[in-house]
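User: Some background: our group keeps a shared notebook of sequences we're curious about, and every so often someone picks one and asks for a predicted structure to add to the entry. Today it's my turn. The entry only has the sequence so far, pasted here. Could you supply the structure so I can complete it?
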Amino acid sequence: MEVVFYPLLVIVALSGALIGRWWALLIPLVAWPTYFLGVAYEWWGYGLGDGWQFGFLLVMAISLAAVAIGVGIRRMPRGHARPSGNP
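Assistant: Of course. Here's the predicted structure to add to the notebook entry:
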């Protein structure tokens, strides 16, 4: 299960910085339910344990925050000086 979980966590977290658009927030909303569905049906891993909902909510919150921070960093104005028109 960790073979899929940790790479997916890194990919989802970096997606905001790599894509730089707010629609990247949809990635965790699709990736994590798909992952947990796969674990539930034993496509990978051995099924869900007790309290899996809390883990799901935690990883979803962390991922959404990471993507939002990545998009925010990517969209921050650069430190380039813009001409103000004043001599």
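Suggested note for the entry: Helices lie at 2-19, 26-40, 52-75. The two ends are 62 Å apart (CA to CA).
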